[in-house]
Amino acid sequence: MSTTHPADPPHIGTLNSGATGTIADVAGVRVGHCTLDAGPVQTGVTVVMPHAGDPYREKVPAAVAVINGFGKSIGLTQVDELGVLETPIALTNTFGVAALAQAQIREAIAANPRIGREWPTVNPLVFECNDGYLNDIQALAVTGEHYRAACDAASHTFARGSVGAGRGMSSFDLKGGIGTASRVVDVAGMRCTVGALVLANFGRLPTLTVAGVPLGRMLAERHTSGGRQPEPEKGSIIMLIALDVPLDARQLRRVAMRAAAGFARTGSSYGHGSGDIAMAFSTAYTLPHEASVFRLPPLLADAHLDPLFQASADCVEQAILDALWQATTVHGRNGHVRLALRDAAP
């Protein structure tokens, strides 16, 4: 591969993509953005809806895998303990977490007034990355209204790159942001779909690897002079994996762990200051909030998980490349600029 990149990233692995090549190929999943683009404020909100119903009353099984825990997300402990989602999944910048958590609580109470009284409280779920290089993160610009706008915008078709929570994010010293991918796989006689969405905000340019090719090293040699000391990796990534396969929370955690394989193949070694978190959820069934007893569908046996592990790793790697390819150059606070890959390697 030369440093002139193709119009689309190379296809990762041997599995085929779904119809749209996005996480929305998993039935029921929708994604919405609210983008803040105003001078030094370059940030936003992205939400992932697991289904069209009330996520508190119809919970979906889920699990979290913390690859490196330098992060300030909220709600992970209860997901780890109970193995379910109770709200849409929200993504934003580090200092926007509290505002979105409160918005999720307010929305859940409005839909279910018994929450916190006759019923247990709700577990807000907000993931974050630090976009402070491009965004004036101290402005605390993200509010509950932006969360509501992202939810209202949720659709099976959505933008990627420098949008929503990805607006101010950086990857490999280039513009990062929102990326997505999907894979279709046959498992135990079932045709299954695995989708991923990432908030990519990690990596150093010299380590960027695209389908095994050291593209970042080529770009670094072109754009930098010798003698410069490499900086430590300080970024983060959130990796969301959706499946339409009947799995329990224990199995979903195993799937989430395989996101690290795809993440590493792009050139990350999970640095000390990197907050790298993966979450997997299944849309194959829901767990009703008010049920005293419920019957699970037949679950996939562990011996058949390998194709899903492969799909998880390949989807995450593909989604990271998608974020880089879809991103546009962004000018942010104090004259800071992150070039899109297509501008850095025309």
Automatic annotation (TrEMBL):
Signal peptide interval: none
Xref: Gene3D superfamilies: L-amino peptidase D-ALA esterase/amidase
Pfam family, one: Peptidase_S58
MF (Gene Ontology): aminopeptidase activity
Name of protein: S58 family peptidase
Species this chain originates from: Paraburkholderia silviterrae
Homology family: Belongs to the peptidase S58 family.
